[in-house]
Request: fold
Amino acid sequence: MSALLQALEDWRALVGADSVLSAHDGGALYGAGGTRSIAAALRPAQAESVQELVRIALRHRVALYPVSTGRNWGYGGATPPSEHCVVLDLSRLNRVIAVDAELGTATIEPGVTQGQLRAHLDRLGLPFMVPTTGAGPSTSLVGNALERGYGITPHADHFDAVMALQAVLPDGSLYRSRLSALGGERIGQAYKWGTGPYLDGLFSQSNFGVVTQMTIALAQRPPHVEAFYIFLDKEDQLPAALLALRGLLRTTGGVMGGVNILNGYRVASMTCPYPAHALESGNPLQADDMAELLRAHKLGPYLIVGSVYGEKSVARAAVKVIMRGFAHCSGRRVSLTRRKAEVLQRLAIRFPRIAAGFGFGQDHAARMLSALNLMEGIPDDVALRLPYWKSGAPLPDDLTRGLLSGDRGLMWYSPLVPMAPDVVLAFEAMVTRVCLQHGFEPLITLTSLSDRCFDSSVPLLFDGRSSADKERAQRCYEALFGEGRQLGIVPYRVGAQAFHLLDTPDDSALALGRSLKRQLDPHNILSPGRYNL
Reply:
């Protein structure tokens, strides 16, 4: 009997045959449409079984690839980076173990989604925000934190909000954060760094263990949330706007969430139907075409979007300071609360022609409310419309359908960009040139991670059913990665399609990571090839 068959037999005896999927069924769920060979899949229902599942894998030398919910849109999803892995799907481990309302923390399993935590907090009547992302209500909080995801709520850096975790190591033993191991269970959920070397970070963007439990800090929902929208109607206003934003983050950043700067292409992808003539030609919209499309919808080349949180008087004062900070911009400057957005939505429904004359319709109002949801820690799937922008078909009722099936292709390029106008302009020019050369619109968002740094997210949208389109997206990604490095700009996160690009000579950090991997996992059982470790 082969090692895999023996392992499957042992796994079935441990968790039941219904929790062990064959290569055929596992491949259908996790094999990216047949592009990756999946040996089998495991779907345990109890966290306690994960240690023995890993021990069985080690005993039979069978590689495992753990996923939380597998909905890592645009970064490879649940598909392993190497062939013949057994997927360890943790989505059924979905308990909210505890919420400490006094300290403001939640202890959760990897299958807990944004939507599930929101519903749990609402049932308990607790005034906390979910650390939302644009990935939608059905995605894992643990998975996003481990990939160092971010959002625009007060706890924008989601790994920074990780207070403690538990992980199964490659030998099947259990790792616990240091303070918890020393007996400080509750304080270990309130203080991130522990005592001695900080080791929890080893499990972020790595393959050193299977995280089965995590405690995250929750931001309390403030009395007042107000969004602000700064429309730039001239391209040459961007450098001054960048300097203004940097200054505002330094002076009022304590009440601001993350701030997004969107270029015209990205704004159009959210607000304008994709032009039929461009869809038929198969060529991307060039700069002149995009400018015309934006003018037709009363939009300009850039939009700055952010939010403020706090007591009403404090938040309103901050909004006034922000508006003054962008006074040099000749476009509209608008602030919006939920109450205002709901009034605008009712007006758009009652007087659609008048609203359309101002470039504002029912769909715009709905999108603004969805954006406010995300700012207020309420999960929303509005951002999942993006992969369908060029589909030429009506949106499906379930926006995850095309992503799960692989029909809607999405690949994220997510580099870190210094908050310096000359670098931002060089970065924007590079992305625009490379994307258009490869047949993609340059959809650029810059999100403030601090007053020093942006993360940019650039989605490559393609027909996931076309192997030629997939190859073109891969070439474009690799060109962006390479030219970005020449500018000193590198991603904060990569998907399976880019792990090989992380192999650089004389990289002492990578060498140390690989040395740790050999010590912890000498038989390369967990996620071989992940982050090139």
